[in-house]
Design a protein that fits this description.
By secondary structure, this protein is an alpha+beta fold. It has one domain: Endonuclease Chain A (Endonuclease, Chain A). It is built from seven helices and eight strands, in the order βαβααβαβαβββαβα. The termini are far apart. InterPro entries: DUF6879.
């Protein structure tokens, strides 16, 4: 097992995969330092500036232009937390950049035995389990090489994507204010 701390080595995962990068998100809150001000403005009902995420959007546009695919499923509880509503707003821009973002109700995820941890799966063969510390801050990721675990996470990816709805469909049903 290899542990990767946040930083350049972790970022390199997103530029070195060949075909697909998939993420399962299961947390109700994330505390990413770059988005704190945008989230504060969102909660205050003020205009939200997502310029801090432009490098992410640009990377997705470049990757998808080359035929590489970014996808994720967000497992959410209802009613949506403030952070999930903020994520739904931000996902509009990420989706426009080319990422396929879908939403899955937590009770459905539990029915299918989806895990209670976030992970990235690159090219269906590189499993990266994310770890979070105090105050929901990302502290790093563990690269898992166990074949059985990789197969299980591929199954969870497929089940999550199959039962989830697109960002736009979910937004139309659950968060009229921030579509």
């Amino acid at each position: 097992m290899t542990f990767i701390e946040p930083g350049p080595e972790f970022g390199q995962l997103f530029t070195t995969f060949e075909h697909t990068a998939f993420r399962l998100e299961v947390r109700e809150n994330y505390n990413a330092p770059r988005e704190v001000e945008s989230f504060r403005r969102f909660r205050a009902g003020e205009p939200v500036d997502l310029s801090w995420a432009e490098s992410w959007f640009s990377m997705i546009r470049q990757a998808t232009a080359k035929g590489r695919r970014f996808a994720r499923v967000r497992v959410v509880s209802l009613p949506l937390s403030d952070y999930s509503r903020f994520g739904l707003l931000a996902a509009r821009f990420t989706t426009e950049a080319g990422e396929d973002i879908r939403y899955l109700h937590r009770d459905v995820a539990e029915q299918f035995g989806l895990p209670d941890h976030d992970y990235w799966l690159f090219d269906s063969r590189k499993l990266v389990r994310m770890h979070f510390g105090e105050e929901d801050r990302f502290v790093g990721a563990e690269v898992i090489e166990d074949a059985e675990a990789i197969v299980q996470h591929n199954y969870w990816r497929d089940a999550a994507r199959h039962h989830a709805m697109s960002r736009d469909e979910f937004a139309a049903k659950h968060d009229q204010r921030d579509n």
